[in-house]
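Weekly structure sync - notes
Attendees: PM, LS, DV (DV joined late)
Agenda: review two folding runs queued last week.

Item 1: First target. Sequence and structure tokens pasted below for the record.
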Amino acid sequence: MSAEGVDLKKRRFLTATTAVIGAVGAGFAAVPFIASWNPSERAKALGAPEEADISKLEPGGLLRV
């Protein structure tokens, strides 16, 4: 195919459109993957901060929670 038979404007448009659609598709595919990195509700509950009364603890003492 010769260079005169190629419509460069159309080629640029199709290339840009394909790139945009690919980027949007990659974004949609990445959302569930990234969301899976968040801890589950069960893990959040197990790792929740505990409250302990340390007012009666002497200096150098140890309190197990």
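Item 2: Second target, run right after the first with the same settings.
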Amino acid sequence: MQIPIAEFEQIEEILENYGLAQLMTEPFDHTEDGDRLNREEALSDYRSLKQNNVDG
């Protein structure tokens, strides 16, 4: 089955927006043990993710 690219892009945007909305409404406990990160832990994790993204 093929659909026009414009329709595909609309569907893609809807799915991305839905996923983002789900992430925004779920509780903000994203560590393995469910605890919130303090500022330094969050910055460390962010730097690690950013570095891995640059290296990858």
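Discussion on item 2: Residues 13 and 46 are 26 Å apart (CA to CA).
Action: LS to circulate a short write-up before next sync.
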